[in-house]
Amino acid sequence: MTILQSVATRVHRHLPAPLRAAPLVVALEAMRRAGWLAPPAALDGRTFSLTVDDIGLAVRFHCANGRFLPGPFDDRETDLTLHAGALSYLRLISGDADTDTLFFQRRLSIRGDTALGLEVKYWLDAAPRPEWLGAMAQRLALLFPEPRGA
């Protein structure tokens, strides 16, 4: 574990769930408002959890009326949970890898509603990525070295 991962893990443990969700939800909502990320109707009313395994980060959010919102923060299972390491998420964001590649390399796992998982997969693979977003994700990926034996 790198120093960055260790610090992120410690900080995450002490933040309440709404604060952990805020950066992701604000980013998703900003991209939606900019017209870069329009959630399909199948996401409406559904709950999601993104887990970044290597830094112990778990973020819960939902989609309502085409908007991304934090929560719910109860103990119920979300409709769909994605598990991956930070590097895999960054590769997905940058367009350097797609969901199928990460899934079959066992770097992305999906739990929950299978039909919803496929809808999210098609949506993520087809979503346009602004050039600056891919460049930023590639730079951030440098902070997360490839796991040994990968």
Automatic annotation (TrEMBL):
Organism placement in taxonomy: Bacteria, Pseudomonadati, Pseudomonadota, Betaproteobacteria, Burkholderiales
Task of the protein: Required for O(2)-independent ubiquinone (coenzyme Q) biosynthesis. Likely functions as an accessory factor.
Pathway field: Cofactor biosynthesis; ubiquinone biosynthesis
Pfam families from the UniProt entry: SCP2
Family affiliation: Belongs to the UbiT family.
InterPro entries listed in its UniProt record: SCP2_sterol-bd_dom (IPR003033), SCP2_sterol-bd_dom_sf (IPR036527), UbiT (IPR016830)
Protein name as it appears in the record: Ubiquinone biosynthesis accessory factor UbiT
The UniProt record lists the keyword Nucleus: no
Entry's Gene Ontology BP terms: ubiquinone biosynthetic process
Transmembrane segments: none
